[in-house]
Every structure is written in structure tokens, then in C-alpha cells.
Amino acid sequence: MDIRHLKIFIAVAETGSMSAAAKKFFITQPSVSQVIKELENHYHLLLFERLGKRLFITPAGKQLCDQAHIVVRQFEALEKNISTLGHKEVIRIGSTITIGACLLPSLITDFKNPNIESFCYVNNTKMIENKLLKAELDIGLVEGKISHPDLIVEPVIDDYLVIACSRAHPFAGRQKLAAQELENEIFVLREKGSGTRDLFMDFARSKDLTLNIGWEVTSPEIIKTIVIKNKCLAAISIRLIEEEVRTDEIYAIRHQSPIWNRTFNLVYHKDKHISPAMSDFMEVARRYGNTGSVKALSLGQLS
Predict the structure, then answer these.
(1) Which of 7, 83, 230, 301 has the fewest CB atoms found within 10 Å of its own CB?
(2) Residues 188 and 264: beta-carbon distance below 8 Å
């Protein structure tokens, strides 16, 4: 069994077709079938079930596929690193959308190193988690929950959610607000898979609130525009609207308890080799520490 076996196996698992895998690797379909048979014999496991003309991956096959992604990516990284000795090191950084909008550009600026090249990928927590597990990213910075046992999570930066509204909204300037009053309002929320959305929806369920979700948006800038122009409410990171709160475009309401407090977390695979570039990026992220200036903002209180 070698790396080629794993690459062909991954292609079959992802396409669900031996013929498609054969085309990808410019080999015959019987050759692909032989590779799968050799893997099954090697591990003494059934990797695919054949029902009629369709191919279905087994639970054992799915587990092997997850691990094979990591092995293949690490092998490719090894090949690339050894063949480019003396050249720049590359680090692949994943960031959730909230962090990508409010912190990542500054982090990358502070991280600048002439011997290191960075590639940044921004998406929601679930997508970052999947790419870390497949070794398609070296390290992630996320605000959502990470529960996979193969990923190490280190809290590094403080944050908290607020309810944002425009200065034209009836809630603007209110010092006290009851959670039940939120049921009568239209919300703009992040997409499913977002850590921000998950945290706020957990709160709504705990209060038995029925929310009117009128907008579902991935872009923080669009969310802010909708809040200001359409008089909607949004659950959003205080870091994303700090400037608008200071300039009086947006009014923010924070829960009186710490239930909306959270951290931005560094995440990486437990089997990942911590390269010098990864170590340097971690240190830059750790220096960002806490919420800093946002603590001085005057906010309303939700009970």
C-alpha cells in the first residue's frame, strides 16, 4: 500500500464512481478496482458496498477517507517543502467571516515575514473545521464551537455578541430591554454553520423566543447596511460595529449576563507539525489578547 492507493481511493470516495476515478488518473477501471481490493485486503475491511450499479462508502471507508486526506496532504506538503528548500515557507490560514472582517487583515499585517507566504481562506466555522480535518488548512481562527476530537482548540481573543439596531429604531437609546421584546422584530442573521448564529439561536431557544428571521446574510458589511437602512435587528460581534457605535450610526445592546461572551480560538489538527510559520502566527494572535477599546463603549442592557 502506497500514497497512490490512497489518492485513488479518495477519488473513488469523492466521486462515487470507479470510472470517474480511472479518468482522473488516466488508468483503466479494472486498475481502480484492483487498488480498492488491495486496500480492503490490506486493512481487512469492506470499504465500499455495491448495490445494483451504485457504489456506497461504508463507515469504515468514511473513516479511512478522512485519515487518507490528512496523509495525502502531509505527503504533498513534505514533497513541496523538501523540493523548495531555501525558498519561502507557506502557511494556509483559515478564518471565520466575523474574524476575517474585523481582525484578520490586521493579524496578517503584523505577521508579515519576508521568508513566509500566507494564504487566507474565509468561511464559516463548519467549513474551516472540515478543511482542517482534511489538511487543506494549516491553522484556523474561529469563533464557533469546534467539537471534533482530532482538533486542538486554544482560546486567544475575547469577544461578545450584541443586538445591533439603527438610531432610527425604537430600541435605540433604550437602557433596558426585555428578551421577550425581540419577538416582535425582524432579524438579519448569519447563515447556518456560523458560530455567531449558533450562539444567538441557543440563547433564543433558552428563552423560548420565536424569532422573525427576515434576512440571512454571510457578509458583515451587508448586515450593517440592512440594520441601518431597513431598521432590522442583528446579532453581531461588537468588534464588527465598534466604529459605527462610536459614530452613532448603530446602537448596541449587550446581555446583562456574560452568556453572549465568547472567544476567538486558534484551531489546528492534533497530528499537525507546528512549523515556524504556524508558531509565529500563533504568537501574533495571542498578543491581541482581550477586547481592549470596545470595553469603553456605552451600551444598552438586555435581560
Answers:
(1) 83
(2) no
What are the grid coordinates assigned to 52, written together? 445494483
Task: Kindly indicate the confidence band of residue 166, based on its pLDDT and cuts at 50, 70 and 90.
Answer: very high
**φ and ψ of 137, to 5 deg:** -130, 150
Backbone angles phi, psi at 188, to 5 degrees: -110, 120
Confirm if 135 and 269 have CB atoms less than 8 A apart: yes
Identify the pLDDT of residue 50: 85
The model's pLDDT over 249-259, given as tens digits with 9 standing for 90+, comes to 999 999 988 89
132: pLDDT confidence band, cut at 50, 70 and 90? Answer: very high
Q: Which domains does the chain possess?
A: 3-83 (1.10.10.10), 89-156+262-294 (3.40.190.10), 160-261+298-302 (3.40.190.290)
What nine digits make up the cell of 230? Answer: 431597513
Is 28 in a helix, a strand, or coil? coil
User: Long-range CB contacts (< 8 A, 24+ apart) of 274-280?
Assistant: 275/89, 275/91, 275/138, 276/89, 277/89, 277/90, 277/91, 277/113, 277/116, 277/118, 277/138, 278/91, 278/138, 278/139, 280/111, 280/113, 280/116
Nearest-5° angle of CA 5, CA 94, CA 125?
A: 95
pTM for the structure as a whole: 0.62
For residues 265 and 152, is the Cβ–Cβ distance under 8 A? no
Lowest mean pLDDT among 30-34, 76-80, 102-106: 76-80
Cβ-based neighbours of 49, under 8 Å, separated by 6 or more: 55, 56, 57, 58
